[in-house]
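Thread title: Can someone regenerate the structure for this chain?

I was given the following input by a collaborator and told the matching structure tokens would be attached. They weren't. Posting the sequence so someone can regenerate them.
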Amino acid sequence: MGEDASGVELVCKLHTRFGEIDPDGHNCFGCNLQHEVDRVAMFLESSTAVNNADQFATSYIMNLYLLGERILEIMRIIGLPRLYKRDVFEVFWLVKLWANFFKHPKAFVLVHHPLYFVEKVVPQTAYKLEDYLIIDDKFVKKYYSGEDANKYQYLFDNFRQNPKVCVRFPELIGLTERFCTATEVFIETIISNQVYLEILSDIGTLRDYFTSPDSDDVVFS
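Best answer:
Regenerated them for you:
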């Protein structure tokens, strides 16, 4: 998650570039991103015994969401246009929409024992899903992208007392690859743009950080 194709940790590139701008200062953005990268890595290392599709996919996507939200916030800070590399960065919003589904289930709370499976891990043909309402990428994009009375009414009408609902999570390896690619492009976009670097350096750097009495207690990756 935290390394690019050359094996160099992506977030370390941010630390290095900000250090070049202000050698005596500490910039918060690299550390905040690294914290979330480490969270994802620790989840994967500790989840080898999880064999429940719902539990694993929900927890994993939520961990990606925590990292993605920080990336999206930095995009807002530097004013990166929403349409810039939309095909690459769209995965951040997809993860956010799945997180919306987990956090704000709306009428999904009315569903009776839905099926859960991860795309390509358990093929759809393993189930007879012709009569099922499928919750997938397309569904969360349409119904969990914001508040809308008509959308909520549809969910209420179709989830209420419904024993035939299936949650089809995205294929997680492909999702992870897209997320990693988007993260790499995001970081490379920052470190190659002097304006973005200066904006983030100005608002995110604590001056004379390494000369403070407590600086020896801080560990950097």
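The chain has a mean pLDDT of 85.
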